[in-house]
């Protein structure tokens, strides 16, 4: 592998992100090791200012075909036969290079998505680095299986082979974090890639392509095509040379992907929406759990598929809990993402802001009580340069019915509903009442009860007395409308490889 000048790359990345003279950053497709200009572009806005800051290529079916062709060629001619150890080394090289430029990646992610810079610095970019390092290391310790049949004098063993060209489609809420969660295993298990980041947040994917190009990563192995779902995503799903699709995003889009992919019998991994319950029993420390609920509900403006949005609180502590929750929500600073004490940045787009706010109006129309936040508290105070940004105070709603849209539908923003319950059986039924089943949190000092409830709640990921504690060795994914498939060291290997059974009759 070539050794590159790290200072030159750092300057290049900084120039892209910081030194564009106030003009929008124009990014390019990365296909076959070349940066490819686009005829048309999509305006991508900085959520904190409401101004256009990136021009994203409006990719076409032809761009997808070009990327699929070079990925298919690179797979068959080189990458699938590249030794596992070498693929692992490439992932480590990418991780090291991102880490060396963590600050500029974090600023770019904040400008693109609206999240606080400190959050991108502490979570998003380090997790992207860890994704590459995790799979670079874990892949070296996987073992195959074998059996013997003495009566036939034969040995049968398993052999894993990469699938081919992987189509990766990722969302706007955790752009680099979730993109690298797919790229790393796809590459290390020997697949080549056509990736489509969200057209709303494409900047850090572009920076990743600049990193790959700078370090001399093999051309044609990892390709980036930008654009909308209908123009680029659909073309990827329907392309005959892309045999597997890994998608993270909304449930409606996931269903459409399933419909398009079914006739082609593609492998699918779908990590979809969530309407995650938090179940809080009356034996907890109310002050502590209310603080943890603030974190689990409003981190990243509530724009995380794992955020809690339905808070079920035992009636014995309900009033005390709501009082503390509202007090802490009102204390959260909303505003300029570059300031270290900002807890909630800007929502990703004006359209999304209006959608999230509309749910508060729905709740009010249904007779619910808005305890704090949008429509009852003053708008966030921001400097003049941020007046056009997409800001919203964390909003707590009580008095909703069990069939309320605010209870049943994914809002994906800083709005939560708090509902009292009385019995264990009742809260299990409430927790399982939506079409979703991604994650849940259970808070209780009664261990047996917490584990009993965990067994009965329909969710793929359950936390007891914590939230967002992730072990990448363990499977991740949802039930019901929250997805198909699992991701982790083992489950990602299963998805990105095909397993053969080879029988060898000895002489």
Question: Which tags fit this structure?
Answer:
507 residues; alpha/beta; six-stranded mixed beta sheet; 16 helices
Q: Which consecutive residue ranges, at least 5 long each, have pLDDT under 50?
A: none
Helix-and-strand structural type:
alpha/beta
Radius of gyration, CA atoms, in whole angstroms: 24 Å
User: How many helices does DSSP assign?
Assistant: 16
Overall residue-averaged pLDDT value? 97
Shape: globular
Main β-sheet, spatial strand arrangement: 15-16-17-14-13-19-20
Our estimate of the beta-strand percent is: 15-25%
Largest sheet data: 7 strands, mixed
Written description of the protein model:
This protein has 507 residues and is α/β, with parallel strands linked by helices. Helix content is 40%, strand content 21%. It has 16 helices and 23 strands. The protein has helices at 6-18, 61-77, 84-100, 102-113, 117-138, 175-188, 203-215, 229-238, 251-261, 286-298, 318-330, 350-365, 405-408, 424-431, 447-456, 489-496, and strands spanning 25-26, 29-31, 34-36, 41-46, 51-57, 146-149, 154-162, 165-169, 192-196, 222-224, 244-248, 267-271, 276-280, 308-314, 369-372, 395-398, 415-421, 436-437, 439-443, 461-464, 479-480, 483-484, 497-505. The strands form six sheets. A seven-stranded mixed β-sheet has the order 15-16-17-14-13-19-20, sandwiched between helices. Strand 11 (244-248), helix 9 and strand 12 form a beta-alpha-beta unit. Helix 4 (102-113) packs across helix 5. The chain is globular, with a radius of gyration of 24 Å. It starts with 5 loop residues before the first helix and ends with a strand. The relative contact order is 0.13. The mean pLDDT is 97.
């Amino acid at each position: 592998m070539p050794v590159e000048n790290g200072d030159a790359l750092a300057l290049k990345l900084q120039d892209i992100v910081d030194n564009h003279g106030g003009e929008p950053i124009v990014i390019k497709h990365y296909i076959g090791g070349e940066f490819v200009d686009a005829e048309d572009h999509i305006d991508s806005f900085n959520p904190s200012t409401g101004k256009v800051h990136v021009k994203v290529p409006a990719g076409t079916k032809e761009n997808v075909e070009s990327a699929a062709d070079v990925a298919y060629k690179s797979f068959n001619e080189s990458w699938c036969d590249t030794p596992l150890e070498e693929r692992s080394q490439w992932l480590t090289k990418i991780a090291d290079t991102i880490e060396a430029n963590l600050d500029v990646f974090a600023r770019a992610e904040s400008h693109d998505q609206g999240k606080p810079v400190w959050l991108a610095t502490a979570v998003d970019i380090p997790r992207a680095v860890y994704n590459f390092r995790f799979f670079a290391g874990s892949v070296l310790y996987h073992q195959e299986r074998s059996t013997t049949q003495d009566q036939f004098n034969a040995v049968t063993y398993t052999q894993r082979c990469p699938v081919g060209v992987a189509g990766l489609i990722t969302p706007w809420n955790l752009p680099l974090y979730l993109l690298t969660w797919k790229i790393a295993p796809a590459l290390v298990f020997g697949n080549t890639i056509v990736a489509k980041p969200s057209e709303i947040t494409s900047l850090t994917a572009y920076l990743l392509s600049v990193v790959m190009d700078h370090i001399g990563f093999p051309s044609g192995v990892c390709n980036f095509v930008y654009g909308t779902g209908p123009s680029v995503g659909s073309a990827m799903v329907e392309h005959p040379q892309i045999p597997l699709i890994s998608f993270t995003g909304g449930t409606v889009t996931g269903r459409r992907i399933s419909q398009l992919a079914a006739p082609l019998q593609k492998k699918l991994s779908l990590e979809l929406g969530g309407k995650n319950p938090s179940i809080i029993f009356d034996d907890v420390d109310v002050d502590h759990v209310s603080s943890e609920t603030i974190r689990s509900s409003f981190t990243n403006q509530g724009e995380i598929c794992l955020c809690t949005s339905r808070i079920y609180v035992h009636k014995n502590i309900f009033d005390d809990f709501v009082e503390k929750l509202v007090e802490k929500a009102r204390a959260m600073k909303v505003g300029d993402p570059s300031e270290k004490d900002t807890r909630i940045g800007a929502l990703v787009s004006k359209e999304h802001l209006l959608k999230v706010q509309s749910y508060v109006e729905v709740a009010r129309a249904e007779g619910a009580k808005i305890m704090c936040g949008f429509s009852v508290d003053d708008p966030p105070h921001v400097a003049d340069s941020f007046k056009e940004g997409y800001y919203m105070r964390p909003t707590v709603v009580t008095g909703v019915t069990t069939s309320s849209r605010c209870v049943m539908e994914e809002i994906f923003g800083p709005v939560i509903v708090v509902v009292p319950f009385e019995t264990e059986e009742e809260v299990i039924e409430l927790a399982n009442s939506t079409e979703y089943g991604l994650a849940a949190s259970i808070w209780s000092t009664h261990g047996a009860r917490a584990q009993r409830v965990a067994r009965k709640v329909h969710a793929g990921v359950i936390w007891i007395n914590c939230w967002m504690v992730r072990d990448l060795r363990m499977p991740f994914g949802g039930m019901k409308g929250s997805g198909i498939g699992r991701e982790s060291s083992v489950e990602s290997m299963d998805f990105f490889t095909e397993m053969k059974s080879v029988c060898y009759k000895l002489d």
